[in-house]
Design goal:
heterodimer; A: alpha+beta; 6-stranded mixed beta sheet; 5-stranded antiparallel beta sheet; 10 helices; 19 strands; 26% helix; B: mainly alpha; MetI-like fold; 1% strand
Chain lengths: 369, 564
Amino acid sequence: MTGKDAYLKVENLTKMFGDFTALEDISLEVFEGEFVCFLGPSGCGKTTLLRAIAGLDIQTHGRVEQAGKDISGLPPLERDFGIVFQSYALFPNLTVHQNVAYGLVSRKTSKPEIDARVAELLESVGLVDQEDKYPAQLSGGQQQRVALSRALATKPGLLLLDEPLSALDAKVRIRLRHEIKALQHQLGVTTIMVTHDQEEALTMADRIVVINEGVIEQVGTPQDIYSRPVNPFVADFIGTMNFLSGVAGNQAQVRLGDIELTTNNCPDGIQKDDPITVCIRPEDIATRGVTPDTENAVPTVIETLEFLGSFYRASLAVQDAGETTIRADFSINLVRDLDIKEGQEFTVALPSDHIRVYGEIFTHADDLI
Amino acid sequence: MAPAAALGIVRHKVSSEDWIMRGILGAIALYLLVAIVLPLYALLSKGFQDKDGNFTGLDNFTEFFTTPALSQSVANSLTISSISTVIVVSLAFVYAYALTRSCMAFKSLFKGIALIPILMPSLLPAISLIFMFGKQGFLTFMLFGNEIYGPIGIVMGEVIYIFPHVLMIILISMSMSDGRLYEASQSLGAGPVRTFFTVTLPSIRYGLVSAGFVAFTLIITDFGVPKVVGGQYNVLATDVYKQVIGRQDFEMGAVVSMVLLVPAVIAFAADRIIQRKQVAILTARAVPYAPTPSPRFDAIMTAYCALVGIVIVGILSVAMFASLVKFWPYNLSLTLANYDFSLRDGGGGDSYFNSVKMASWTAVIGTCVIFTGAYLVEKSKGFLAGRAAMQFLVMMPMAVPGLSLGLAYIFFFNHPGNPLNFLYHTLPILVICTITHFYTVSHLTAITALKQIDNEFESVSASLKVPFYKTFWRVTVPICVPAILDISMYLFVNAMTTVSAVVFLYSPDTALASVAVLNMDDAGEQASAAAMGIMIVLTAGGARLLHAVLTRGLARRTQAWRKR
């Protein structure tokens, strides 16, 4: 993406509500045609950032630039964007047609043109025969599509989606994910979506911006964010992660109790004997063909086996590393082939490529509950 | 990257839309400034002046409290207001209990009957009482030698007049009770008495206290009832009238109306605090209570409601009958002569049409101004200081009794130096005064309706480049039509029945029906007064009926988008 000029630039943006800093020094670039997700826990400031970009709640400091034009202080009416809210905010007393045509009517577009545009939009979301219904007569998913059509009707340069799927049932949500993504791809409209649902962000976004407590934690592709989280917060927030406390050893070595592990991902600046956090995802733990000679082999005892449908999640007690427990995913095959039972001894390996080391002590969010 | 730029606070560009919003909001704030703040200031400063306008400090107040005839009114007002409040809250509580917690028949009929007094000027029930219990009354024997003129009459009149207001407040708080609490109480083995004291009473206690405050304020500031049946028993409200109209002592009138302001302001403040608490006890997951039939209890409740209903209908019927006979109680042959107002004192037949005209203007202009103002306060962005000031201004009218407002208008608008002096003694000033008098309740009705509308409508329309006023007209107003009808009905009915504020402001050309009732009663023309009162009731009732028809028709037409 580098080399191209960014379509939307956010520079050193800070938003204060009284003494509370909702966003601190946010800088960000979004490229033309890109689908970017703002992902973070509730109250992290992601919606505030979206509203600042829209001009609905203008930032305290900082610049926003869209298509080469400084729009920092402009009211929403003078910006170029379409928006879909979590509540959809469909006008209840207007029909589907009137809702979608709402922004076109005030642009002095001729009536046949409006009708053609509305028909085209409704066709692309599969609602052609619902034109004359009122929003209350539609299902949640249909309402969502109407809201999307209305936002796209005026061909905005930027589409903003504020938790557009969170009011829907799980199944409808999954279907709409694909529909929205496909429509966005087809129209090529630059899109920013706010969500707290990591799965939504991972499946839909070209790039994800992880936000926590008003600052950007990491920006990257879904694969990047998932496999190379830059800090324990991102590692914990996205996917499932084992957090093991240890100490740094020589060079690429870390120690968990009596166990020595080799890693390729040790960050700079960590001295020998510094306390560290060692992370590995349950699905990255090697389970087949592990012998005591395998790199990073760890002898464990299976404490529990939790059946999760397509796989088992095992809790493995690591005696040599104090009271540490590691979660690992066991395939159905593995459990069947080896006749694995709770209480059994079992050796796994923590592949050095998949181990991530952070030079800070991290308390897993679940432990606080 | 320009770190230096990051330090500066972003200057919001104020769009032309924002200027329109601020301009309208500013205009409405200016209206309230002229219509309530400045007159009130004129009133307050008058209380500290002598006849020539010299500042005299507290001299007027010293005179007030050292003149036994005047200070006695304070005690009288407090006495009858307290007694009436206790009676009316108890009666309305049982009535509301019957309507919400029993399975008796004809609930909507009983509710309708209970609301009849709202359609009357407060003078009318008092006039009716005189027909019933006065010197030639057919029920006078029931007073056992006591006179209706005085505290007994005032309390009876006030209880009837205030009953619907109190009933509505209690009904609302009762209908908000959570049915699950009753199920829990029953499943834990509590009997009906224990359930009543542990569930029912605590859940409506704020409603009861609020009803009490409202009743007390309405009674102590009401002028119609004591004017008609007060006799020699002086209260604050009649004192203001006597000082100003009778003795032309405007300074003392100002002092008395300031004294009247005190309980009204206290009650208003207390009510606001309580309302805030009332909201907090209600959870979104509450389940409405559904009563179960119990023949004995339902029968008792029906009998009670029938009794109250008979009294209310009786009051109306007596006034109506007395207005239709030649000479009560000696010649009971029917006639319409009392409805020929051209022969009477107090403005003649024009006064009725003046009232209808005034009430219509009040309803139309008042609804437009109040709803627009409420919309801007609720939905506009930024301009925090302006909106906060507005929120304070709109609450002020509620704390000012009508008599004080009317007197304040004399001082402010009749001042020779006031450029608005030309309004004095015209129909517009009556409209302005009436809109202002009933501003707060209408504003709160509008706010309640607007709060139910998605806050993002304005954001969406901005993103679609549609100016806010188009969305206001195409979306917000249509959605709020029921509330808009409620507000205009409320303003119309109150404009028809109000006496207190306008009694100081009318001129011979702009006499009003409610004032005509007062003047005809003063002149001893009780039958004509009753006739004019009935005209008001019929007109206000007609407006209510029209409102019901419109609301129902609208509900049918908009059913498609309101309900799934």
